């Protein structure tokens, strides 16, 4: 059973959220979720996050991490050749590709592989131009004073 949501009423009162609505309407998000390899997402500060993935059996050379716009892609492929005949194979060594949607202005700081855990550190950095600013209200038409933003007044 699939339920479709109509976001049309939200378009009337929002500006610039097209990307969010497209993500919610994206049919690929509703596909079966692959649970391997297991991972945690940890918020370690106001603007700091970590993704920790259990990638036992993979070395640094077997993993590939790329950031394309707002998507973080982690790929793993085991290049180890099979030696001998397996009587039981319980350690998953298959290749994988895991994608994470990132918010605007989130960038990857670094990645480490310790004891079979891949840790990817992320940081959200909001540009100065996008931070909240106080706008001074001036008189219109009386003394023809130009409205200036508080930060611009301090710089002048």
From TrEMBL:
Keywords: Stress response. Residues 30-140 form the SHSP domain. Pfam families: HSP20. InterPro entries: A-crystallin/Hsp20_dom, ACD_IbpA/B, HSP20-like_chaperone. Belongs to the small heat shock protein (HSP20) family. This is Molecular chaperone Hsp20. It comes from Metarhizobium album. The lineage of its organism: Bacteria, Pseudomonadati, Pseudomonadota, Alphaproteobacteria, Hyphomicrobiales.
